[in-house]
Request: fold
Amino acid sequence: MKQTVAKIAVSAATFQIDKPYNYLVPSSFIDLVKPGMRVLVPFGLGNKESEGVILSLGKYSEYDKLKEVISVLDDEPYLTAENLKLALWMSDRFFCTVYDALRTMLPAKLKSKNKSREREEVKASEENVRLSGEQEEVFTEILPLLKSITPEAALLYGITGSGKTLIYIKLIKETLLLGKTAIVLVPEIALTPQTVRIFESHFGSNVAVLHSALGTGQRHDEWKRIKDGDVRVVIGTRSAVFAPLKNIGLIVIDEEQEHTYKSEKSPRYHTREIAKYRVTHASGLLLLASATPSIDSMFAAKTGRYKLFSLKNRFNKMELPPVLIVDMKKELAAGNGGGVSSVLRGELEENLLRGEQSILFINRRGSSPLVACGECGFTYKCRYCSVSMIYHTSNKRLLCHYCGYSISTPVKCPECSGKLNYIGAGTQKIETELLDIFPDISIIRMDADTTRRKDAHKKLLTAFRRREAQILLGTQMVTKGLDFENVTLVGVLSADSSLYLSDYRANEKTFSLITQVIGRSGRGEKPGRAIIQTFTPEHKVISLASKQDYDNFYESEIALRKALGSPPVRDLIALMVISTNESKVIHSCAKLMSSLKSYFRGKSDIKLLGPAPAAIPKVSNKYRYRLLVNCKNNKKVRETIAHVMKEFAKDSKNAGVTVIADVDMYE
Reply:
């Protein structure tokens, strides 16, 4: 009797035991099953039902006794041969299971009765995109890469307001004329409505949208339109890189420097790497673009791995906004202990009188980031995480931004009954301060607290565009990509707060944030200006950001990276060890380090660092320590690390300890 054997990626298989598992396909399913379909299978000693994805079908198995597939969950394959190959590549590259990789490619909801997202009435415009002389020159230089029969990668470095989006649009028009498809990725959901509006004005219903703020039914319906070939242009955030488009000719990653392109959960992929894989296999073009390119991407461009193109002038021919740096130490000495300096206050008053709008950026939500006793020094820290609790005025509670634990605001110090001080400022406190100064104005606050509801980003930005508020105050979501012609003033509050993070990217993040938000000013016909408030006005990063001097910043930063052996000069693979027992974590780190030293003995090009506590040593009552492998990331190194992790997991003494490997970590 002939048999059909399915090799299946099983959801219940952990990384340590992950492999294609063989199952017998019952005769009643033989004509139904195909690679890429989901099935239900028994797994483990208890034969617990688990979802799986069929990777391949055959007639033979190396095992004599096989369990049978319980049921088939799909009427058709939701995953293509390309998806299956990509998942296998991801499992090797990002230390994840094949099923976890496939899961990221599946639509949010496989059966949907919801309506597709509502669309505004738009026409597919035949009008030619009008480019400036500089833009036309760059477009003409990029076009041969798009038409190349081999895969290509390029970096478009254009100052804020230089009109990079117009180049994307014209490249997409050329892509469609070639009979190919295109993906445009943006880093924040906040940018999606604006981006969609622009692209729909040119491509109409040929555009689909994928991001996490859509309802599950809406996401499924958009995914289905893409898979069925009803659209040829996809706009979205990180996960849209997996959009089931065929014949991809172009992938654009806008604001490519943003950390949101890196997944923080398994699989811990970087969107840029997935995009490279897809254009490589489709012989397409990957276009990375930013006013502040990541050090990694600029290094790749400078060393010839990417083609480099530059836009040095603003599209509207306006100058970049002049920047004034305000020393907050002097403000304190003058008796101003608030978050809004006297200089910024004066500039805001001028804007209000002229009917012009302002954007203010502070990289903290909530009201006060620290609550402490002025007499004994007691501070409120989270019970489950090694971080301070943040005071929120909206609900009068102290909240942990990592695990969500909260308590009612205390009246006095629990240690000495002394008076509590609320130190520092977040978006809520600045909003209150502004309303005290300007009681008759309207402020739109954009942070994680005000954008939780569906379509909140779109509604808030639309209201600001309609000039229903004079000030837009927010966290990182207001720093990039936004284009409001009536905004002529930008204020950066606490500009140096991100400079002292325990992260080799701290300088890069700070420079990028400041430069990007300054670029939101003066994008229309009216000239703009910017204010940077800082306690360290002499800091080189602050100075270079105020001048929008990316070139000198890059040269300074890459020299530092070379001296330290940090990425992109060398690669870092982090092993995070996690457990509720701190001593067990430390002991496990020692065991892992010993194993790694043994396997890498004699490899002078590989350096092992640590163990050391993570930047946040405890989150949700779990302790986190990490080891770092400083190396040249290649298949042999990854295989060795994976082997050490699997051997560690097999030892029953290590029960209760989780080890996670992360390539190109962001923390």
